[in-house]
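S1.2 Input.
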Amino acid sequence: MENRFGPEYASIEDAVFIPKYKATCFCGTVRYEVSKDPVDAKICHCLACQKLHAAPMQWAAIFHKRHVKLTAGLNHLVFFNSEQDRHERILPCKVRCGRCGTPIADEGRRMWLAFPELFNFGHHTKVPDSFKPTCHIFYDMRVVEIMDDLPKWSGHKNHSNLL
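S1.3 Output.
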């Protein structure tokens, strides 16, 4: 695989890319950096996220791909397109580490939905405010009632009913 993951991503050789946050899978094989704060963060309760993450919900911080630089482990990435049930990089798709199985991101056509748990914010450092969820989506599929003050949408944020 070449140095660039795709033309929409920052290049490894990009001298103006200044990493703001760094993320890694559990085993450390796959690593990436982001140069900006996320544009949004959400908690998804859809059935696909529940099954693919083996959890009642999925928390994602959303970045433009141009602010993401994959720095290691490109040859260990495994892709899954749930719409077509294919293990290929057909966007949108799920991205995992092929060595340890850690979910890395949901890769969209223009966006990178990163999992904040993978970022190193430093010991005893709180998660930055920009990574904190702004809403729940697909909340009508929830398996656990969440008692917080965040807006709860039946589908996508601003494109469905506010519950």
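S1.4 Remarks. The longest helix spans residues 47-53.
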